[in-house]
Write a structure and sequence with these properties.
Largest sheet: none
Shape: globular
Order of helices and strands: HHHHHHHHHHHH
Radius of gyration: 19 Å
Oligomer: single chain
Strand content: under 5%
Structural class: mainly alpha
Amino acid sequence: MKLSPRALGLSAAVVTVLIWSSFIVVARASAAHLLLPLDIGFLRIIGAGCVLLPWGWWLMRAQRQAGERVGSLMGLSPLPLRITALAGLFGSMLYAMLAYSGFFFAPAAHASVLMPGSLPLWTSLLAIVALHEHITRARAIGLACIVLGDMLVGGASLLKALDGGEIWKGDVLFICAAFCWACYSVLVRRHALDPVRATIAITAFSCVTFVPVYGLAAFMGWLPSHLGSAPIPEMVFQAIYQGIGSVVISGITFNVMIRHFGPVRSTMITALVPGLSALGAVTFLDEPMHLNLMTGLALVTCGILFGVRKTQNSKL
C-alpha cells in the first residue's frame, strides 16, 4: 500500500525523532567507554559506508552502462562534486566531529536542549538568507522561546566556566554541531536533493576524505586513538548503531521530512527530541534534572507549539 505524502512525511518525522532522541543517550553513554570522539565518528562513517556505497553504485549502474558520466568521487557519489563536498562537509564530517566531542564534556541533558533546540534558530536564519523564506509571527515567537531555553542551559554552564568547569566546552560544540546540520538541511531544500542520494553523497565524501586521513593518523600515532585497543563488540555496535541507524535510516527519513514540511518546520518538529532524550538521560544515565534544564525544556516545548502551527499566510 502506497502512503500518501502526508502519511509519508509524518512517518519520517516519527522515525527521525525517535532515532535522534536515542542517539543523544547512546552517544553520551559511549563517552564513558574507551573510544574517543573521532574514533566514534570514524566507525560511524565506516558503518554507513558499508551500506550506502554499494547502494550508490547500484543506483547509477544503468547510467554507467549507457556510457554516461554520473556523479562524482570516482562514481561513489551520485551528486555533483560541489554539492557532494558542501553537503558532506556540513552534514557528515563537521557535524559528527563536533557532536561526539561535545559529549565528552557536557551531559546528555545539555545536548538534549542545545543541539535540537538551537537547530530551528540556525535553520530559520539560513533559510531567510539562502532561500528567501518568510518567518511568520507565530514561528518567530516559537524561535524566541527556543532561544531562551538554550540560554538557560548554555548560559549556566558558561557562568561555571569562570570556576574552571568544562561543561561549557561541550555546550559550544553542541551549538556548532547544530549549525552544521542546519547548513546541510538548507542545502537539501535549496537543491531539492533526493533523500537517498543525499545521504549516500555525504557518506561517500567522508569515506574518501576523513576515513583514510584519520585511519592513517591513528595507525601512525599522529593523533590519539583507541581503535587499536577498544573491544571488538563495542566497535561493531558503534558502526551499526551510529552508522546504519543514525546515518542511513535517520538520514533518509530526515530528508523525506524536509521535502514534505520544509527545513524550518522540520527542525521545529525535531525540537521534540529535547524532552524525549532528557527523559532517557534521567532514566538510563541517572543524570540529574536541575531547574534550569526543566525550564529550558519547557520553553523549547512551547516553541514547538508556536513553531509548527500552520497559518494561512505561511510559506514554510
